[in-house]
Amino acid sequence: MLGYLRERGVPEEAVSRVRAPAGLDLGKVAHEEIAVTIAAEIVALRASGEIPAGSRTAVPREPAVDPVCGMTVDPGTTPHRVELGDRTCWFCSAACRDSFEAEPDRHLSRDSTAGRS
Fold first, then answer.
1. Residue pair 91/65 in contact by the 8 Å Cβ criterion
2. Cis omega (within 30 of 0) on the bond before 21?
């Protein structure tokens, strides 16, 4: 799983936060019950303060514009994003994300609304 995420361009910082296995160990249970244990673990982590309330819970439904190449991007499917304070920029590829991270001001100055949500 971790290799798959890396191959898809997910940043190492994000890959290092993956918890596996997820959820409570209940032994052999149905898929629906596994999903509930994962949700319970997330609620417990939020309650303990390990996950800030409201962090990364909403993904925009409308398309975003990659601020590097101008391509339309679906925030719900692309793993390539950068969070800058209260804004998130979405990218079509790891290459565009990396270019943006190297010079964010340059890319944002082209269009003040590009890639933001």
1. no
2. yes
Distance CA 115, CA 102 (A): 16
How far apart CA 34 and CA 83 sit, in angstroms, is: 30
Q: Please tell me the predicted confidence (pLDDT) of residue 116.
A: 46
The confidence band for 65, taking pLDDT boundaries of 50, 70 and 90, is very high
- Domain spans of the chain, in order of start: 2-48, 64-110
What Å distances lie between residue 62 and 20, 36, 58, 82, 110, CA to CA? 31, 29, 12, 17, 21
The count of other CB atoms within 10 Å of the CB of residue 109 is 11
pLDDT at 111: 56
H-helix segments, 8-93:
12-15, 31-48
C-alpha pair distances (Å), 17 with each of 5, 27, 34: 12, 24, 20
